[in-house]
Amino acid sequence: MLAAERHRRIVAEVARLSFVTTDDLTTLLGVSHETVRRDLALLERRGELTRVHGGATTLQGSVGEEASFSERRDAHLAEKKAIGRAAAALIEPNQTVVIDVGTTALEVARALPADHVGVIATPSLLVATEVSSRPRVEVLVSGGRLRGGDLACSNAQAVDFFSNLRADAVFLGSGGIAPYGLTDFHLDEVATKRAMLTNASHRYVLADSSKFGRMAAHRVCELNGFDTLITDQPCPDDLSTALSRAGGSIVVA
Q1: Mapping DSSP to helix (H, G, I), strand (E, B) and coil, where does residue 55 land?
Q2: In DSSP terms, which residues pair with 202 in a beta bridge?
Q3: Nearest CA-CA partner of 57 in 6, 14, 8, 13
Q4: Are strands 118-122 and 137-141 parallel, antiparallel or unpaired?
Q5: Is the dihedral angle over the CA atoms 174, 179, 181, 186 positive or is it negative?
Q6: What would the pLDDT profile of 68-108 be if each residue is shown by its tens digit?
Q7: Packing angle, helices 22-29 and 33-45, rounded to 10
Q8: Residue ranges of E strands in the chain
Q9: Which residues are within 8 A (CB) of 28 and not within 5 positions of it... i.e. 6 or more apart?
Q10: Average pLDDT, stretch 199-228?
């Protein structure tokens, strides 16, 4: 098969499926993984698709950089507050709960009642400050390297902290959610999120509807990597179907 024909078929397959894996393309085209990787790199330079870990996706929905904390703080605020209330309602007294970084995760902390009793563990200094005002909450902070804006901790210290903590529930922030999976903008924080998911009995992802179909640079997990999506609107059909096939549920605040 000539290179031009391979390129045409790759672009058509990505457009048809929105996301296609490198393995699928090698089977479809009958060429090596290295040839597919070179083809994807060329097509990305031409602006015909976006390469992601394990394959390629359409340009629509891909986001290169996260907006600043000040920009995100007030965006979709009513929706985030509703998600925060719905999430907080799932937290029972005397549980050990992990609350992640991000503006929506912060609303979960804010929605906890003043008399809440339990342990809250977090990599976010903003979340820690919020829940510290509740006298019957024990606050655990992971430590690690601090990122400005969200005041998020990450690195090996944070990963080790959550790898050794068994939580009843985790409420994870998100950069985007699509049939491809859950994604995030900050590579250093992906390992922390994975450790949180691995050691929690119940795994919730927080995502307002602006994140549907959006893909940040780094995949945290596939859709079967968590149990429940908490959001503010019903998901688009493709995402809803993919979540159902992955065994996940959706809570609409």
Answers
A1: strand
A2: 169
A3: 14
A4: parallel
A5: negative
A6: 888 888 889 999 999 999 999 999 999 999 999 999 999 99
A7: 110
A8: 19-21, 50-52, 55-57, 95-99, 118-122, 137-141, 145-147, 152-154, 167-172, 176-178, 181-184, 200-206, 218-221, 228-231, 249-252
A9: 9, 13
A10: 92
Phi-psi region of 144 (alpha: psi -120 to 50; beta: other; left: phi over 0): left
- In angstroms, rounded to a whole number, what is the distance separating the alpha carbons of residues 143 and 162? 10
CB-based burial, 80-93: b 16+ in 10 Å, e otherwise: bbbbbebbbebbee
Phi, psi of 66 (to 5 degrees): -80, 140
How buried is 117 (Cβ within 10 angstroms: 0-12 exposed, 13-18 middle, 19+ buried)? middle
DSSP state of 211: G
Whether the Cβ atoms of residue 230 and residue 203 lie closer than 8 Å to each other: no
pTM of the model: 0.80
CA dihedral sign, ordered 137, 172, 232, 234: negative
Rounded to whole angstroms, the Cα distance separating 226 from 162 reads 16
| Residue 127: per-residue pLDDT | 98
